[in-house]
């Protein structure tokens, strides 16, 4: 099996769509069952598996499975599921925070300022270059450590640090006009 995996990995790295499709068909169902143990949702599990395979295809020339394609895929799915669960926890925490503070945010001026700041922040994040935006979101939204981001994206930790510095500098520049609003909003409380 290992020599077959080595051959399949080599073909995928060289850009063989047929080899990639073979790997996808051979492992998809069992990986989906594995992902389901984390997500408890078939559609989410399927989407996570597709994300893993898309990332493998996009980074196929860097594929380093050490001849163990099945183990590599399970590890990749495991990491994808953990990231999914972390993201779900962040969303749940945010929703709980919003519900707890819904009655407090009755000041329409503060609410408008907060909405405008959120809108501008969202626009500024979306204007970041692709890799820079991905790294920023993994760090600040999904709260991954730089080393985890580097491992997940197959980048050096130095690249992650540089991209984060670039993202923060760009966001500071784009949101400088909203600093007074943010300060007022934070110092007066909700």
UniProtKB/TrEMBL annotation:
Alphabetic keyword roster: Sigma factor, Transcription, Transcription regulation
Cited InterPro entries: RNA_pol_sigma-70-like, RNA_pol_sigma-70_dom, RNA_pol_sigma70_bacteroid, RNA_pol_sigma70_r2, RNA_pol_sigma70_r4_t2, RNA_pol_sigma_r2, RNA_pol_sigma_r3/r4-like, WH-like_DNA-bd_sf
Keyword Transcription: yes
PANTHER family membership: RNA POLYMERASE ECF-TYPE SIGMA FACTO, RNA POLYMERASE SIGMA-70 FACTOR ECF SUBFAMILY
Protein name: RNA polymerase sigma-70 factor
Ranges of residues in domain RNA polymerase sigma-70 region: 26-88
Any Pfam family matching the protein: Sigma70_r4_2
Family membership: Belongs to the sigma-70 factor family. ECF subfamily.
Domain RNA polymerase sigma factor 70 region 4 type: 120-171
Record has Transcription as a keyword: yes
């Amino acid at each position: 099996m290992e020599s077959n995996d080595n051959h399949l990995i080599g073909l995928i790295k060289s850009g063989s769509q047929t080899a990639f499709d073979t790997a996808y068909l051979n492992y998809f169902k069992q990986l989906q069952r594995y992902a389901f143990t984390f997500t408890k949702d078939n559609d989410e599990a399927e989407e996570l598996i597709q994300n893993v395979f898309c990332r493998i295809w996009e980074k196929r020339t860097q594929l380093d499975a050490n001849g163990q394609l099945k183990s590599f895929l399970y590890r990749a799915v495991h990491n994808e599921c953990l990231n999914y669960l972390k993201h779900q926890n962040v969303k749940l925490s945010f929703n709980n925070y919003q519900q707890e503070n819904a009655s407090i945010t009755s000041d329409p001026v503060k609410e408008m300022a907060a909405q405008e700041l959120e809108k501008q922040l969202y626009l500024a994040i979306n204007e970041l270059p692709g890799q820079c935006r991905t790294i920023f979101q993994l760090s600040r939204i999904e709260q991954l450590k730089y080393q985890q981001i580097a491992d997940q994206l197959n980048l050096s930790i130095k690249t992650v640090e540089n991209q984060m510095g670039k993202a923060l500098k760009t966001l500071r520049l784009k949101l400088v006009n909203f600093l007074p609003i943010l300060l007022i909003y934070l110092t007066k409380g909700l």
